[in-house]
Fold these 4 entries.
Entry 1:
Amino acid sequence: MEILIQMISKKTQNSPLHNFLLTLGVEVKNTQIFDEVFTHRSYLNEHKSVAHNHNERLEFLGDAVLELVVTEHLYKTYPNPEGELTNWRSAIVKGEMISQVSRQLNLGSFLKMSKGEEQSGGKERNLILANLFEALIGGIYLDEGYAKASQFIHTYLIPKLKKIIEEGTYIDSKSRFQELIQNKIGFTPRYELIDQDGPDHNRMFTIGVYIEEKCVGKGQGPSKQKAEQAAAADALTYYL
C-alpha cells in the first residue's frame, strides 16, 4: 500500500500542471485543490465522472484574499486618504488587470473546459482568465496559507500598481473619456448597446460609445457597465 501511495505521489509531482506551478513558486501539497482551480464549470458537463468540483468556489475565496492583500499593502505603503486608496485598489483588482496577469502567466493553457467553450475562445476571455487567477489565489491560500498567497500576489500583481498610479489609470475610463471630450469639444459621449450574446449565466454585451453619430470605440463585458468602461477605454486609445 505504501509503495502504491509513493507511486501515485511521484506521478502527480511529475505532472505538467505540478511542474508549471513550481515555476510560479507554488508548491502543491493537496493536488485536488489545484485540479479544481484549473477546472471550468463547462468541463464537468462533459465529464460526469470527475470527482472534484469546478473552480467557482475557489474563485469566491480568492477574490476575498486578493482584496485583503492589496488593501493591506496600500495601507502599509501609502499615507494617502481613503478615497485614493480605494480607487487604486479598484484599479488593480479589476477584471481587466488580473486577466492580463493571468494571460501573461499562461494560466489558461492548463484550464480544463468543454470543447465547445474552448472552441468559442473561452481560454482567451478576460472574465474566465480573471476568475482563474482568483481561483488560483484561493487554492494557494487553502494549500499553503495566507503568507504564500500574499507572496504570490506581491510577485505577480502588486508591481503593476506603480504604473497605475503614475499614469492615472485608476480613474475609470468613462470619467476620463467624458472629461477629455467635454474639454476638447464640449460634447457628452453617449453609449449604445450594439449586441448581446451567450446564455444568461455567461452573457456578453457589446457597447459602442458615440460622439454625435460617429462610433469612436467599442467594448465587451459581462455587464453593460463593464462593456461601457471597455468602450471608453477603446476610445481613449484614439483620442489620447
Entry 2:
Amino acid sequence: MSREQELATAPSGVESELATAPFSAAIADAERLIASADFAETDADLAEGYDYLAGSISAILQLVRAHNKAHPYFVTSTGPYSKMGLDNPDTIYYHAVVEPDATYVVRGRRGSTTDLSFQVLCGEYSADSVPDGDSAFDDRRLTIAADGTFELTFGPARDDAPDDYFVLPDGATTLAVREVYSDWDAQRGLVTIERTDTAGTAPDEPSLERVKRRYATAAKMLTSRIHTWFNFPKWFYLDEPVNTFTAPRPTPGGLATQFSSVGHFDLPEDKAMIVTVPDSDAPYQGFQLGSLWYISLDYVNHQTSLTSAQAQTDPDGKIRMVISARNPGVANWVETTGRRRGILQFRWQRTDDPIGVELGPTAEVVDLDEVAARLPFYDENRIDEQGWAARIAARQRAFARRMLA
C-alpha cells in the first residue's frame, strides 16, 4: 500500500502526519484573522482580504523554496499579485538570503529607472518590530561602466577591501534591492548574485525532512506576515488625525535617501480630498493610496498612484490631486476604487537634502461638486472620457513592458 493510500484509509488523527499539516493550520488561522478584521466593512473589503491572503500564501511558498543560503538568488519580494507592506506601485522589489560570514558578488546592468538601491537587513519584520537596516545606499556609490554594467561585493570586514566592497554586519540575513520608476516607460535593469565559495557547485537535493521543515517554516511565516502588516497602519498611520498628512520624515526601516509623508483618509462618496504638494527637485516623488489591509490598490487598471513625472503640474509649480470615489473630471484624479477608508503615502527618493515641511503636502476635504471652484487651474486640469481612457491605457502598457523586461 502506498503512503497516499495509507493516509486515505487511516483514522482522521493520522492527518497530522501530513507534511502540509502545519501550513494548512496556518491558512485556517490566517483566514480567521481576515474574516474578523474590524475594518472590513463591506463584502468588497472582505473579498480584498481573501485575495490578499491568496497572494500571501503564494508568496510564502515561493520564499521558503527559494531560501537557499548556500546558493542564493534574487526573488521578487512583493509585487502586483503577492502584495504586502504597502508595496510601492513604482518599485520592483528583489531580495536574496545572505549570511554575514560569507562573500557575495552582485553583478548587474543599470537600467534607465530613476533609482536603484541596496539594503542589508538584519532580522525579519515581525508584529512588534522593524528590522535594522544597517547598510543602505543607492547606485551613486557604485562604479558603473559606460555600458551600464556594474559589480559589487558584500562580505565580512577585511583590511584590504577593494572599491565597491560592502561589509555585511553581524546578524545580516537579507540583501534587498529596489528599482524605482518615475516614468513607467523607463527601461528595467538586471541584477544577479552568487556566493563565491559555492559558485560552480550544485545544491543538495531536498530531503523529505527538509521539505517538511519548509512547510513548518511557511506556516510561521504566513501567520507572522498577516499579524505584522495588520499592525503597521496602527503603528504609523491610524493614530494621526484623519484626512491629514504627517510632515515629511525619514522612512522607518533604514531606506537610503527616502523621506515619506503619511496619513489615512475617510471619504464618503460625495466628498473629495484636494491634496496640494510642490513639485520638488527630488528625482523620485510618488504618491499612492492603499487599503487598510496595508497593500496598494489596483494601480495598473486604475490611477491610484501618481509620480511627479505622471502628474500634471500647475503653472505655479504645484501638483494638485483630487482623491475621490467618483470622477471629478481632472487629470490628477486619484481613485479610491470605491473604498471609503484607506492609506495615504508620499515618498521622495534619491534626495541630496532633507525634505522639509515646505515641500510636504496639504489636504482639504470638500464636497465633490466644489472641486472645480477649489482648483485654481481647473480649466487646465480638465480631461474628458477619451483622455482618461488614454491615461489608463498608457499605465497598462507600461506595466506590461515592465513585467516582461
Entry 3:
Amino acid sequence: MPSNYRTIYMDHAATTPVHPEVFYSMKPYLTSRYGNPSSAYHLGEYSAQAIAKAREQIAKVIHAHPSEIYFTGGGSESDNWALKGVVDYNRIRARQNRCHIMTTAIEHPAVLNSAVYLKEKGIEVDFLPVDREGRVNMKELMHKTKPQTVLLSVMYANNEIGTIEPIDALGDYAKLHNIIFHTDAVQAFGQVPIDVKKSQIDLLSASGHKLGGPKGVGFLYVRKNCPLEPFVHGGGQEQGKRSGTENVAGIVGLGKAAELASQNMEERRKRISAHRDMLAKLLLQQIRGSHINGAKGEERLPGNLNITLPGVNATELVAKLDEQGVLCSTASACSAHKSHASHVLTSIGLTEEEALSTIRLTLGEENTMKQIYYVAQLIPQMVKEMEEDAAR
C-alpha cells in the first residue's frame, strides 16, 4: 500500500458511507433515548414517535401512505417476505393449490434463491429472459402468464449493469391480469424518482445502506389490502406482520437517509451521470475492445459503469486497484468471493470469459472529476502492464 494512500471509493452499489446527518439523527436512540417503542412510558414514546416519523419520511419519497411501510432487517429480508408471503397467502388463505410466479434471470440472489426455494416446495416458477441491455422480455412475460400466476417480481434497476426496467409497463400488465407486482428497488430507492401508485407497484423492497443509511435495516412497501402473510410472528410489531423489537436507531437513520436522498435528486443524478459518462468515455478510448454493459442514458442508474476489458483478469485488476486505493468490484457484493461468472452478465449474452473480464465501478456523491481522471489514467495503465506480463 503506497505511503500516500487515499481511498477512492467507487463501489456505492455494494454499500455507501453513512451520511453525517444520518449518524447524528441515530445517535440519541443509541444513547439517551434507548426506550423500547412498545413501552408505555416517555422513553418508549420517544422511540415510537421516531419510528412514525421515519415511516412518513420514507412514504413521502415513494408516494405511499405511512401505514404501508413495514420495517425489516434489510433488502434481502424484504425480498424473501414479498415472494414467500404472497405464495403463503394464496396457498393458506385463498386455498389455491396451484401457484405460479415469474421473475427474471438477472435478479438479486435474495429473489432468485427465494424463487428456487419456492420451486422446491412445489410452486411453479418461470425465470424470464432479458435482452442484451438487461430489460425483461415482455413477449416472454405474456407467453408465460398463466391463470394461476399470483406474483411477478422484477427488480427496479439491476445492481450489476444498472439497467432500469420498464416498471410502468410491468405494473400495468400485472394490474390488468390481477397479478401482484413486486419490485426489488434496493438500487433504485433514493437514486431515481419512484411513484408506487403511478407504477401500480404492490410490493417494493429497499435497504438503508445503499443511500447513506445504516446497514441492517430496510423496508417493504405493502400496498393497502395486498394479500401478504406475516413474515415473523411474535409480539405484534409492524401491524402484526413483522414482529420483533424494532431497530429504532436504524429505522431513524433510514428515514433520514431517505429524506436527504430525495432532496436535489435530479441535480445529483445529472452530476453523477456526467462523471460516469466521462469515465466511460476515457476508458473506452484507451482500452482496445472494451465495451459497456447495460442500458444507456436515462435508462441506467446514474452512478453505474459496468465495463468489459477483453482478456483481462478482472479479479486480479480489482486487487491491483485496491493496492492503489481505488475500490471497485467485479460483480455484486454478494458474489465478490465467488469465482464463477456473473449470472447477470451471462444472461445478457456475455461469454464466461467476457464476464470474468468485467469490472463494475459505481460512483457516488463524493466522487470528484479529479478522481475520475485519475482512475481513467490508472486502469488503462494497469491493463497494459497485465497484458505485458501475460505476454512474457
Entry 4:
Amino acid sequence: MKLQGEDSDGVKDLELIKIIKPDMVFTDIKIPFMSGLSLTKTAQAMNNKIRYVITSAYEEFGYAKQVIALGVQDYLVKPVTYEEVGNV
C-alpha cells in the first residue's frame, strides 16, 4: 500500500486530491474545515473514478445512510484494523 498524501484538514485534503488524483481516498467524517462527507461529495464532482472509504467513531445509522447515498466504497467504524483496510 502506497500512501501518496496525508492531511487532517478537509480543505487541504481537497487540494491534495486535485493534485495527486489518487485511486482511493480514506477520510474521517469529522475533519476540520470540511466534513469528510462534504469532502467526498465535492471531490466526486471533480473526478468520479476515485473510490472513497469513510471512517468514523460514529455508528449512527444517519451517517451510514449519507455514506451509502454518496456511493462510497466502504464505511469503517473505528477502531479500524489492518484486516478491514486490506479487505476494501
